[in-house]
Target: Peroxisomal leader peptide-processing protease
Amino acid sequence: MGRQWGSAMRTAEQAGCVVSASRAGQPEAGPWSCSGVILSRSPGLVLCHGGIFAPFLRAGREVLTAAGAVFLPGDSCSDDLRLHVQWAPTAAGPVGGVERGSSGLCTPQCAGLEPGPPASPRRRLRQSPLPAELLLLLSCPAFWAHFARLFGDETAEQWRFASVASHDEVSEDDEEDQLRALGWFALLGVRLGQEEAEEERGPAVAVAPLGAVPKGAPLLVCGSPFGAFCPDIFLNTLSRGVLSNVAGPLLLTDARCLPGTEGGGVFTARPSGTLVALVAAPLCWKSREWVGLTLLCAAAPLLRAVRAALGRLFPSTAALAALLPPEVGVPWGLPLRDPGPPWAAAAVLVECGTVWGSGVAVAPRLVVTCRHVSPREAARVLVRSTPPKHNRQQHPGQ
Model:
């Protein structure tokens, strides 16, 4: 991925993990799993997607869309909830095993074709999932406000945000549950033994302030496709893209993401390995057509919501706020309010009835677009432009 990504890749892998949820005594139910971001290894603190907790809510899934629901305490889920977190070790060892003691990280490796010495029980223990507990469920109010404004009007029926293809058979209840949990995340406490707590160390994760990363900036996504399925190959899979567009804390990227990467961290190369966002929805469709963009929730406002929720809960949990990663200062040459490149102002949206497409403003009141976008000369054409100040304007055309 280039020299600029070396440090960012190491940070992303060290911060990546997979979270699985199951019911005690019911192995046939579930398990449910997603990706997560390690905020602290010792003590263990993980932020992941909240969708896997919907089946365990005592008050039912409807509580996620209740008026004024911003966060829910850890005991809002049933007692039979069992959580485990699996993350990669802090150093690579021989094939088939892992060791500690040096910087860097490698995901667990699959066994090679050649038989080798069996890994010691101690080494196998390093890769075992660790028990965890739910501290709180929370949503980002700013994310929900922008999502409702963009996708909550009469065009909402044309959009689908789910972890399955739009043509797959999914019940309306399942699809509604996924939509309810779209902007919800979970803070987990990972239970470590004394020896593990002393040995588990990792670099501190830094968070980019909202608006610090300009449109078009390269991004690196670290998530586990298909969740806890086959972590030997899928744990902490990397994907690269750019910041495709921004609407407050609602971000879009063209980085390739798959079901199971919900909750995975999105990082930037400058400053190296800075956390920008978490994956909210890896796949989306419009009018039953797949849209190759991933929906993200900015990390900065999400962590502010975590701090606010911890402050309103029990005093013992308020101390956890000190473990949350801080927002970094804006580096030189990376303005908070980026005016955007000149080509961005020339791109417009052209609508002609139910047909829509992109266009380029080549002169005042003159737009070039594909012929199929405006199939009928007499049809009314609407051009939507987005100037640098992000005040969308509409212009009738012909």
